[in-house]
Amino acid sequence: MAVQVLSCGEARAKVELGRTHAAAWLASRAAGAPLEIGRADPPLQPARPSEPVLLDPRDVPKRKPGSLAGRQAMLHAVAHIELNAVDLHWDIIARFCDQPMPLGFYDDWVRAADDECRHFLMVCDCLHAMGSHYGALPAHAGMWRAAEDTVGDLQARLAVVPMVLEARGLDVTPGMIALFEKAGETGAVEALNVIYAEEVSHVAYGSKWFNWLCGREGSDPKEVFHDLVRRYFHGSLKPPFNEEKRADAGLPPDFYWPLVEERE
Ligand SMILES: [Fe+2]
Ligand SMILES: [Fe+2]
Predict the structure, then answer these.
(1) In percent, how much of the chain has pLDDT > 90?
(2) Among 113, 151, 214, 261, whose Cα sits 20 to 30 Å from the Cα of 121?
């Protein structure tokens, strides 16, 4: 089911399929008859629509954040992040199913994947209300990099995707909400507030299962986190951090601060 979502190239069909499959998994769990985990062979790159055109981030035109075009561009970038997140969460489900994990691992990522499908749809609705749509502008080409880099290592995937990239979302979303509030775009403010609240749980799922894996092998989570982020993450960790929401998600300061200082 996860591979079907990853292999679907049409954005709306992808997220609708994702929502249907998520509901089927959660219903099977609620009924006490979980669907079989099975084995999967997910594609290295998920299928994506022919639009938006994907560009190197340096070539994506910058627009003034105070203008309508700027706000459309910002929401378009959020829609792109959400669609990428849909694939990231279904990929973690399909990619590592050869490793024995408790069923709760799948519950968490199926819920997160379903959230991402809803986030994408909400942001698309806002884009329409603002006279644009997903695909109208070029988008960032490098979003799948973290998934490819961590294709063979579940702990590295958890460290880099939820615990670094999605945690970064918690840092930057309040500023974005303030910008749409100032412009009186209440639809976008509502959507971003839902995303902001729900993304905390995705970071929390990341740190929960990262810590669980460390506990299973008897290793020190902080040491392993630092080692894996240094090896697999090619960006930089930039303050200011949202210390409060990161704490809610089970990410203590001694996980992320040491990685900033050494990269400055
Ligand atoms: Fe999201
Ligand atoms: Fe997420």
Answers:
(1) 92
(2) 151
